[in-house]
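the two lines:
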Amino acid sequence: MGGLKKKKLWGSVSLVLALSLALAGCSGDNEKATTKDGKEVLNITAFIGTPNQAPAKDNRIYKKIQDELGVNLEMEFLVGDLQQKLGVMIAGGDFPDLITADTKLVSAGAVIPLEDLIEEHAPNLKKHFGKDWNRMKDSSDGHIYWLPNYGVYTGEFISNYYSGPAFWIQKSILKDAGYPTPKTLDDFTKLIRDYAAKNPTIDGQPTIGFTTLASDWRTFPLLNPPEHLTGHPNDGGVVVDDNGVATVFADKDISKRYYKELNNLYNEGLLDKEAFVQNYDQYLAKISSGRVLSMFDQHWNFQAGEDPLVAQGKIGQTYVGFPLVYDTSITDHYLDRPVINLNNGFGISKDAEDPVALIKFLDKLMDEKYQKLLSWGEEGVDYQVNEEGRFYRTPEQRKEQDDPAWRLVNKAEGFYAAAPKLEGTFEDGNAIGAINQPEEFYDNLKPEDKELLDAYGFKTWSDFFSPAPENPVYYPAWQVDLKEGSDAAVANKQMTDTSLKFLPKAIMSKPNEFDNIWTEYVDAYKKIDIKSYEDRINEQLKWRIENWSVK
Amino acid sequence: MLKRLRGQRQLMFMSLPIVAYILVFSYYPIWGWVMAFQNYSPAKSFTQQEWVGLKHFKFLLTDDAFLNVLRNTIAMSVINMVLGFATAIIFAILLNEIKHKFYKRTIQTISYLPHFLSWIIVTGIVASSLSVDGGIVNVVLMKLNIIQEPIMWLSVPEYFWGIVGASHVWKEVGWNAIIYLAAITSIDPSLYEAAEIDGANRYKKMLYVTLPGIKSIVIILLIMNMGWILEAGFEVQYLLGNGVVVDWSQTIDIFVLKYGLQIGNYSLATAAGIFKTVVSITLIFAANSISKRLGEDRLI
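prediction for all of em together
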């Protein structure tokens, strides 16, 4: 190689080097945004375990948080399956600063214990979680890894709005039948049969009498009804007796009775034929078409399908929940006292560079000032305050809140739902969240809703349910951590798989074949190691009773 | 030897990055296979892991579900491969017979466009066309009086493999045909002329000139595809499958996802992955030696 050539080579190499340095410099400059008073903005990456739409780039609330607290949130929302996403994240060993709670992350050593951080740097959080401190400790090592997002109440507990499990029925059916109160499954199905016979199509499309969902992890609409129909609270896959002993019920007679009823509905053409084939998006789309008369679900799960109906003013096609039971001798136990939502919310990953700054940021957000910003919005823009200091919204402001597109620009819903938060009432007596402010709730009701509630003589949606009794110490069992890769976890997967395989088959069979398929189902169920699953739950319930009881 | 190396140093130098790439991304990860013989926990370091020997392989091979899964994977792969090959070759030969340039181009373009759609979109199209609620397939069959009542295609286990196979054909036939079309253009035109002089008609020419002309390409592709035989896919089955058809729809990848990644059982997932690799390698060598006996080109 000649001298000249060499020079040329070095020349181009240094040129490339200079260019790349310049480029790196540029991108570095871009990242360092500053707040108004010149402080550097802290970038916090967060993974949120629910599928949300990403907020608009110029979102007003996130902007305010950045200006005032100097924190820019870079959020990643779930796309696809959560367990798969977390599994891949763990296998790759790369985590965002804030991460959605999941027990899998604890056993992978992906999150750091929080109790010391909270004690030292986060007085607001400490105060907030104070009385649930022991419950939040992980049963395996006694550390606190998660900041639960829901279930800790301050002040008065108000629940106007019900978002838990129930049998949901369209309001127009109730109006049509003269506002009856269905108590049992039979009352309920009769209403649907009558209405569907009168209205074979809705908005030009065939009427669907009852639908259900069993897709991905959202299997509870299909699997949970039997426990509720027998007057048990929501404990997930088990019912717990008075002695605190949990048993699996999916293959028992209490379940058979419910699925037999679905089988009847199916053979009458009232059950959605595609109920077991549809995925979550199809389910929501079907609900938003307004032609689904009823289903069993939890309100938060189908809310997104109801929103478009509200936005279009089709209030008659939105839903009221009823606490059905098998027969009137059973007291319904749908409504429960708020429990802290363990194994939910946020944790701080081991990759976080500055955990102290993170916990301080979350702590600042627990300040009433920011809680008001996150739940109500900005005073004068999103809500008004009257002479008595009560918060309310003008009709225009309420209308804005109904519009999903507006909310993406003007609310920080994605983050707020996952973050720890105040619930109940503020110190000034206003409810946290407009939906829980009694007068605001009532004023915000659509005329159709007022008419309906007046007809029943109720003030809120929760009035349809029996008042919640005191929760047992261990409640709820569905929050038990089965331990990653354990026999109990494998058994749980196999149980769900077996149910999802046989139940649709049984429900979609001819009436005279139902019993045979049910026997097959029970036989297949027996082959699973149910005992290891029950044992793990019972062992944990016992542990809770010992450690959580007030002594 | 050294002299030869020096003589080819430019060549050696150029191949270095590729070799490094393969070492880093294809060979280094094999180290992770040791996980299959442990009860792997991401929180512990290598020395702290618990060794369990062949436990995970035993679980796989004695589990009824896994044997079903293996059957489904192989069956759907074979269906996809055979259908994919046959339709692509037939399509290419037929397309070659169209002499009108504009028609030929248009047909070819339309046929390969679906290749660029992602499976999530394709399965969406498939699911809505097979719907009982006004899906096009049921509507057409009803109008033609072939069936009396809409069929719920996606909830009959026995139809599942067929639906997956048909979806693959719809998506890939045009794309797969491209390589055969290219091969056909390289056939010496004088062969056709000779055949014509000998009195061969159109079909005879297809059968005795075109088909033998692309035979070597077909064999090479077949061997290469053998390596993918256990890759029946994940997306289609995951997106179209549901509880009712699980016995027929679950493939190895879905099993690994459900019983490995989702419940944090990484060792089991790795064991299933190793199993898949070993079977694939065996199949590729088998195909290669069969090809050798047929006196055709070989890959390895």
